Amino acid sequence: xxxxxxxxxxxxxxxxxxxxxxxxxxxxxxxxxxxxxxxxxxxxxxxxxxxxxxxxxxxxxxxxxxxxxxxxxxxxxxxxxxxxxxxxxxxxxxxxxxxxxxxxxxxxxxxxxxxxxxxxxxxxxxxxxxxxxxxxxxxxxxxxxxxxxxxxxxxxxxxxxxxxxxxxxxxxxxxxxxxxxxxxxxxxxxxxxxxxxxxxxxxxxxxxxxxxxxxxxxxxxxxxxxxxxxxxxxxxxxxxxxxxxxxxxxxxxxxxxxxxxxxxxxxxxxxxxxxxxxxxxxxxxxxxxxxxxxxxxxxxxxxxxxxxxxxxxxxxxxxxxxxxxxxxxxxxxxxxxxxxxxxxxxxxxxxxxxxxxxxxxxxxxxxxxx
Length: 370
Known about the structure:
CATH topology of the largest domain: Udp-n-acetylmuramoylalanyl-d-glutamate--2,6- Diaminopimelate Ligase, Chain: A, domain 1
Strand content: 25-35%
Number of strands: 15
């Protein structure tokens, strides 16, 4: 039986908690990690409409992008939010898990999904990011067991470098040991110095997977006492950061980009024509004002985001940058479908439902602002 903790493990493999901004509040906000799960509801945020779906669908776990509890609370009053909404979740017996800015910046996260949905290629991180902390694992394995240990390590998440998996280095040598009284050696006899043909197996792993990889190592290795070394590395793994920038498959006019944005996001709130053909596009879910300077430095032709301040929009247009604002909720709602698909693949036995789009009032067909 799948429990909440198992689903959390899969979600945090996709969007590690350490990638969240310091001010953010992500993780399990309501409920019990040991609760069994058979139904999951994925939504953008805990609204009245989502709570109505919870009371109708009766899921065991709700997964949202926006936190319900965003600032620390001193008391939990059920006559006002967020306590009122927490009480309604608890009345149904449902847990609530949140992945917010960690999902925004993560490789394979929300902004990567938006770039893919828009057909962008040669995609890179738009805003400042940080690389993932890496470790080097070296373990000594008797010949004949190297393949089993290697497969266990890589299946636990070690050995990934860019778009390559099962990356290891192996060199043969001789290992020595003497088993003392009370031991049960896999090879040799108690009290005798043994010399064994062994392979030094090296691989790389994200620091966040350290426990899982070591557990897999100890389960797969035949020795009673496993000799291994673990080193911190100065080089970093994949860079996580806000927004994405990439190339369109074919150049578009500014209004052609508006049409594309309507297809992907369901609508457009505001459109500012930068006056030039569009080849390179930056995209950022949610509030994108903080990445405007990055767009200008990168020389992109257009910026698609959830919302951008009035004055920032004017600056962008004056610099020849087309801006398409699709609305905050509209820009983030694709997370719901992407997360639901991810959970269905990870847990085929679960019933996963997507909450209805909370909607966002849209202007009439977008026109260039004067």
